[in-house]
Amino acid sequence: MPQSAEKVLDHAPLFREPEYREMLAKKKALFENMPADDVVQKTADWTKSWEYREKNFAREALTVNPAKACQPLGAVFVAAGFEKTMSFVHGSQGCVAYYRSHLSRHFKEPCSAVSSSMTEDAAVFGGLNNMIDGLANTYALYDPKMIAVSTTCMAEVIGDDLQSFIQNAKNKGSVPQDFDVPFAHTPAFVGSHVTGYDNMLKGILEHFWKGQECNPGTSINIVPGFDGFAVGNNRELKRMLDLMGVDYTILSDVADQFDTPSDGEYRMYDGGTTIDAAKAALNAKATLSMQEYCSIKSLEYAASLGQETASFHYPMGIAGTDEFLMKVSEISGKEVPEELTKERGRLIDAMADSQAYLHGKTYAIFGDPDFVYAMARFILETGGEPKHCLATNGNKAWEAQMAELFASSPYGAGCKAWGGKDLWHLRSLMATEPVDLMIGSSYAKYLERDLDTPLIRLSFPIFDRHHHHRFPVWGYQGGLRVLVTLLDKIFDKLDSETIEAGVTDYSYDLTR
Ligand code: SF4
C-alpha cells in the first residue's frame, strides 16, 4: 500500500494512488452489481425532468433527506445554554451520540450530553431503573448545577412518565430533593429540533417559574432559538442590547459553551444563563424570541404569566433588524443609538455598492422556517429573487407568511415556499427551474455537485467548512457578513465562468 510513515498521505491523495484505484474498481465490478453506466445516466437525467418532479411531489409516505433533525437535538442545544447544565436524554444511547456528534461537528467543540442508555429490557419493563441509575451517575460524575431531561422516540413509544420517574429517582437518592431537574417530553416522531428547543425551554422556565410570585419589572428576556450561528449571533445580540443600555436576560446562551478557548483547561461547562438569572427572568417585563417557530409554547407560557411577548424571524438584514430594534426600543423606552443607526447606513451603502451583481440573482433557500424567512427577506432587499424556499419543518402558517413576504416585493413574483418538503423535492425544483445560487447547510453539497449550483453555507449544520458560526449574521453587522458571503460566491462563480483565455476572459475582470 502507498501509505508510509515517512510520507503520510491525507485520504484525498491516498485514495488516488494506483493501488486504491484498482481496489475500488474491483469492488465496483465484483460486488456492487451496478447497471451499465449509460443506464445509470439515463435514469439520473430522467429524475431531473418535469415528469419525475410530478411523481416526486406526489409521494406521501416517504421522506428523502429531510432538512430537519429530531426534537431531542433542540432540547440538548437549549439546555447547553444554561450554567453548568448537563443534558440527560432518556432513551437509547445511539440517539444521544448523534446529538453530540452533530453539535461537535458543526461547532468544532466537544458537546456533552448523557443518555439513560435504554436497551431491550427497559423497552419492555420501562426505563425507571435507567433513570434512577443515570441521574445518580450524572450527578456524581459530571458535577452539574442542573440536569435537563428530555426523551428519545424509544422512551416516548413506551410512555415513560418523566415527572414521576424523576421524583422516584429523587426519592431513591439519585440527586438531592432540591436539585434542579427540569424536563420535557420531546417525542422525535413529531415536530423537529425547533419544537424540541421550545419544549425544553418551556420545561426549564416552568421548573423555575411555576408557583412563584411574579413581580413584573423592566428587564427583557430574549430567546435566541436554535441557531447554528449562535456563537457569533448571541455576542452580536448582546453588543446591540448593551449599546442600547437595555436591561436583559438571554434565556439559553450557548455562545461560550460552544466556543471554549484552548488554554490548557478543559471546560465541560462554560458560560450560559445562570440559574439565578433564569429564576429572576420570571419578573421580566417582556419575553422576546428571535425565532417564532422555536418558541411558540414558551412565549405562550410567558404571556400566561402577564409578560409582554413578541417574536421575530431570525433578525437579519435591514427590515429584520429594524423590526427587532424598534420593538426593544418600544418595550424598554430606550432610543436606538446613533452607532447602530450608522451601522444600518453602512449596510445599505454596501448593498448599493454591489447592486449590479446582486440584482436579479435567483436563489433556492432551505433550512428552519425562521431562517428561510429571514434569508428570503434579505435576498429581496438585495434585489434578488428567492425562487424556491423550503423548510421541511415549515407548516401552512409559515407558507402563508412567506407568501405575504413575496407579495411585499416586486422581486417576490414567481417565488414559492414549500413547507413539509425535503431536499429530494428541492432537487426536482432546482432541476426543472434552475436558480443561480443555493443557500442552506452542508447537506446540499451533493445537490451542488449534481446540479452545478453553487452552495452558500449559512444554516445549521455546516460540517465541511470551519468557523463560520463564530461570526454573526444577525443585526446590521451580521447582514454585512451575509452580503459579503453572497458576493464572494457570486464573484467566484463569475470568475470560473469567464476564466478561459481568449474565449471568455473578456469578462475576467480585475476590477468589479
Ligand atoms: S428520530 Fe428517534 S431514533 Fe432517531 S435519533 Fe431521534 S430520537 Fe433517536
Automatic annotation (TrEMBL):
Q: Which Gene Ontology molecular function entries are recorded, alphabetically?
A: ATP binding; iron-sulfur cluster binding; metal ion binding; nitrogenase activity
EC number of the protein: 1.18.6.1
Q: Which family does it belong to?
A: Belongs to the NifD/NifK/NifE/NifN family.
InterPro entries with a match to the protein in the record:
ChlB/BchB/BchZ, Nase/OxRdtase_comp1, Nase_comp1_CS, Nase_Mo-Fe_CF_bsu, Nase_Mo-Fe_CF_bsu_N
Q: Which cofactors go with this protein?
A: [8Fe-7S] cluster
What's this protein's function?
This molybdenum-iron protein is part of the nitrogenase complex that catalyzes the key enzymatic reactions in nitrogen fixation.
Q: Which reaction does it catalyse?
A: N2 + 8 reduced [2Fe-2S]-[ferredoxin] + 16 ATP + 16 H2O = H2 + 8 oxidized [2Fe-2S]-[ferredoxin] + 2 NH4(+) + 16 ADP + 16 phosphate + 6 H(+)
Domain of life per record: Bacteria
EC primary class = oxidoreductase
Which UniProt keyword terms apply here?
ATP-binding, Iron, Iron-sulfur, Metal-binding, Nitrogen fixation, Nucleotide-binding, Oxidoreductase
Note on cofactor: Binds 1 [8Fe-7S] cluster per heterodimer.
Q: Which GO terms describe its cellular component?
A: molybdenum-iron nitrogenase complex
**Which residues belong to any copy of the Nitrogenase molybdenum-iron protein beta chain N-terminal domain?**
1-56
| SUPFAM superfamilies linked to this entry | Helical backbone' metal receptor
Subunit notes for this chain? Tetramer of two alpha and two beta chains. Forms complex with the iron protein (nitrogenase component 2).
Protein name as it appears in the record? Nitrogenase molybdenum-iron protein beta chain
* Residue ranges of every copy of the Nitrogenase/oxidoreductase component domain listed in the record: 70-485
